[in-house]
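Standup notes, protein team

Yesterday: finished cleaning the Reichenbachiella agariperforans set.
Today: Transcriptional regulator, MarR family structure.
Blockers: none.

Input for Transcriptional regulator, MarR family:
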Amino acid sequence: MPKEIEFIFKSPDDSPGYLLGQLTMLWQRKQKKVLDPLNLTQTQFVLLAALGWLSKVSDAVTQIDIANQSNTDRMMVSKVLRTLEEKKFISRQEHQTDTRAKVITLTHEGAKILQKALTAVENTDSEFFSVLGERLPSFNQYMAKLTEQNKDH
């Protein structure tokens, strides 16, 4: 039998990575439950939400803008946007000044489905994180710091 495996942490509940992984899986399961009836995956929702958010401040949102906003791989964004276009949730037109880029916009159907998804996801998030109570803003700040610190690694 091999030598006993050595762990830095005394138990799984002492490991932030393990706990984050467990929490993420449970959270994703809840998200899937509310997104499935809307014919959206978690990733599709994230990209639609990024597009919706960016569209509030710009009429020329590109694939790169969406990838940057969502901290998502550009090639994966391209594939998912193709699927969203097939579902008629987005449209792509030529960019007026950058011939390599396409302007991505929500269609009427895309805006309707995004609004339904936002309501469902935000309600699910409120319920999921309700145990944090008044500590939620602090929890969010720590998550934002961790994201900012690690997004270029």
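Follow-up from PR in the comments: The longest strand covers residues 90-94.
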